[in-house]
Each structure stands twice: as C-alpha cells, then as structure tokens.
Amino acid sequence: MGEPTFSPDGKWMWNGDEWIPAPPNQEPSVVVRETSTKRKDEYEKEILRLQYERHIETLTKRSNDGLNAMLFFGICLIVAIITPAEAYEGIPFPNDVVQLFMLIGSVVMTFGGWAVMGKASSEIKDTKRKLQNLERL
Predict the structure, then answer these.
(1) Of 121 and 110, the one with more pLDDT
(2) I need a labelling partner for 136 at 20 to 30 A (CA). Which of 16, 36, 69, 129 fits?
(3) What count of other Cβ atoms lies within 10 Å of the Cβ of residue 120?
(4) CA distances (Å), origin 117, targets 46, 67, 124, 135
(5) What total number of domains does the chain contain?
(6) d(CA 70, CA 98)
(7) Average pLDDT, the chain
(8) How many CB atoms lie within 10 A of CB 109?
(9) Which residues span the domain enclosing 42?
(10) pLDDT of the residue at 34
(11) Is the Cβ–Cβ distance between 73 and 37 less than 8 Å?
(12) Which residues pair with 19 in a beta bridge?
C-alpha cells in the first residue's frame, strides 16, 4: 500500500473510503508539501517584485535629483559667464580667479548631475527588464 493521504492541516487521513482522525505525529502528505512550496515560491516572487518596484522608485528619485543638480548648476554656469568680473570686487582673490572657480565648479557639478541621471536611467531600464522577466515566470 502507498503512502497515506493526509489533510492539509495534518489532522485527518483518507483510508480509501472516508476521512478518519490521523494518528498522532503524522506529517501532511507530499501533495500538501508541494502546495506549501508553491505558496512559498509565489510569496518570494511577490517580495522580489516589490523590491524591484521600490528600487525603480529610488532610482527615479536619484535621476530627478541629478536633473535638478544639472539644472541648478547649469544656471550657475550661465550666471558665472554673464556676471562681470567687477561684481566680485571685495573678495580677497583676483576677480578672474573667483570667476574661474565658479565656472569650473558649475561645469563639474553640471556634468556630475548628468552622470548621475544617466547611471540611474540605465539602472531603471535594467531593473524594469528584471521585473518583466519575473512577471513572465
């Protein structure tokens, strides 16, 4: 005779004609274990999906922050270019040096924002692809 079939809660056993109380210390049948494994897989898949979605939200914020930095320092760059050197009088550095520092700082920060935005955008695409592959499973 094969292995007996137990109810999912393990409290009942099928004797071929009817359900009877299961003997003490009996484990649920293999079918029930497969169902539990399937539920566990679905649960883990859902957790992974939520993690991917949260990661996409975080990367989108990072990309937006990069865009904001790029815009802000781009504006600073324009201001540094159009502001006459005389506006920096009274600063204990030569006017041209102050203007040069503002120019270099603005250029570096603009490209930094651009780089952050590009990297975040690339990661968003990669994470969305992973999410689509997960949903196909």
Answers:
(1) 121
(2) 36
(3) 21
(4) 28, 6, 10, 27
(5) 1
(6) 21
(7) 79
(8) 17
(9) 37-136
(10) 57
(11) no
(12) 14
Angle formed by the axes of helices 30-82 and 95-136, nearest 10°: 160
pTM above 0.70, yes or no: no
Q: Quickly count: other Cβ atoms within 10 Å of residue 110's Cβ.
A: 19
Give per-residue pLDDT as tens, 77-95.
788 778 776 776 777 767 6
Please indicate, yes or no, if residue 83 is contained in any of the structural domains. Answer: yes
8 Å CB contact between 48 and 131? no
In a domain, 26, yes or no: no
Phi, psi of 4 (to 5 degrees): -65, 155
Across 54-92, b (16+ Cβ under 10 Å) vs e yields ebbeebeebbeebbebbeebbebbeebeeeeeeebeeee
Tokens 């539920």, residue located: 39
Per the domain annotation, does 9 fall within a domain? no
Contact 45, 134 (CB under 8 A): yes
